[in-house]
Write a structure and sequence with these properties.
It is a single chain. By secondary structure, the protein is of the alpha+beta class. It is built from four helices and five strands. It has a domain at 1-51 and 89-112: 2-Layer Sandwich (HIT family, subunit A), CATH 3.30.428.10. The protein is globular and about 35 Å long. The structure holds guanosine-5'-monophosphate.
């Protein structure tokens, strides 16, 4: 599969500092920030700093350092949010996955029972 990255997507603009964000955590390879339209009491987005369109793009092409930095950010966000009662991590991907922003992002959602995994 060929992945074509659009540098004008909204998360690319956030990474360039062109759009503000409420940062939760940042390291060399990842940024985590509050979703602008939270779907639960806690809703944080974790994104890589590299130009990856989707989870499968990131998993295929990101370096070990980038992947490690990203997962470290996920761990830190879970620690900061205090997700002892549980959480859901969601990576919507492309059209059927309902992805709106074409820069790979992992939603970390928590703070209430989240119901069934998928709408029926
Ligand atoms: P997707 O549907 O692509 O998985 O999720 C995109 C998410 O990005 C949505 O939950 C939406 O609320 C969030 N979002 C869209 N624009 C912005 C923005 O400018 N700032 C922040 N913080 N979140 C955004």
């Amino acid at each position: 599969m060929e992945f074509v990255y659009d540098p004008e997507n909204i998360f690319a603009k956030i990474l360039r500092g062109e759009i503000p964000n409420k940062t939760v955590y940042e390291n060399d390879h990842a940024l985590a920030f509050h979703d602008i339209a939270p779907q639960a009491p806690q809703h944080v987005m974790v994104i890589p700093k590299g130009a990856y369109v989707s989870l499968d793009h990131f998993a295929r092409d990101a370096s070990a350092e980038e992947q490690h930095g990203f997962m470290k950010a996920v761990a830190e966000v879970c620690e900061i949010l205090g997700v002892d009662d549980g959480f859901r991590a969601i990576a919507n991907s492309r059209e059927h996955g309902g992805q709106e922003v074409p820069h790979f992002h992992l939603h970390i959602v928590s703070g209430r029972p989240l119901g069934p995994m998928l709408a029926r």
